[in-house]
Amino acid sequence: MDSMGLTVYLSGEIHTDWREQIEAGTENAGLPVAFLAPVTDHGASDDCGVKILGDEDQDFWKDHKGAKVNAIRTRTMLERSDVVVVRFGDKYRQWNAAFDAGYASALGKPLITLHDSNLTHPLKEVDGAALAVAETPDQVVKILSYVIDGTL
């Protein structure tokens, strides 16, 4: 059976190697998956607006510019994606990841959330919009494999 290729957007926390684990797992499985992601360099993501469009005296306007420049990338990539994976970590509140999950859901994109079981209650509404809730990157790889090949 010919495998269909997927474009997968990997949204969420940037402090662990979960993206690399998923990418390596799909490569090792020989899956035809292309990955997209936000800018994971925190400083570049925070400063892109003022570095490109000019300095601001107030943090609000600095953040406003950066958020909008980042949104150009995020929206474009979310719309291009076949599947969206959103990772929530324990260390930081990822409001942007929750927004990405909601935006993906509004676009009708298949959504997979990825988080530890201790976040199940706080993420119940986000998980409610997801088609799968995974706890490990390996589970995400297995979902993608099943979706592509239809085999276990």
Describe this structure in words.
With about 150 residues, the chain is α/β, with parallel strands linked by helices. The protein has a domain at about 5-40 and about 80-150: Rossmann fold. It contains six helices and five strands; from the N terminus they run βαβααβαβαβα. A five-stranded parallel beta sheet has the order 2-1-3-4-5, sandwiched between helices. The longest helix has 22 residues, at about 60-80. The mean pLDDT is about 95.
Write the layout of secondary structure elements.
Blueprint: E1 6-12, H1 18-28, E2 33-36, H2 42-53, H3 59-80, E3 83-87, H4 95-106, E4 111-114, H5 124-129, E5 132-134, H6 137-149
Parallel strand pairs: 1-2, 1-3, 3-4, 4-5
Helix pairs in contact: 1-6, 2-3
Name the features.
Rossmann fold; single chain; globular; 6 helices; alpha/beta; 152 residues
Helix content class: 40-55%
Query: Which class of the domain at 6-40 and 80-149 in CATH terms?
Result: Alpha Beta
CATH architecture of the domain at 6-40 and 80-149: 3-Layer(aba) Sandwich
Helix and strand pattern: EHEHHEHEHEH
Give the low-pLDDT segments.
Answer: none
Number of strand elements: 5
Strand content: 15-25%
Q: Average pLDDT across residues?
A: 94
General form? globular
Give a brief description.
By secondary structure, this protein is of the alpha/beta class.
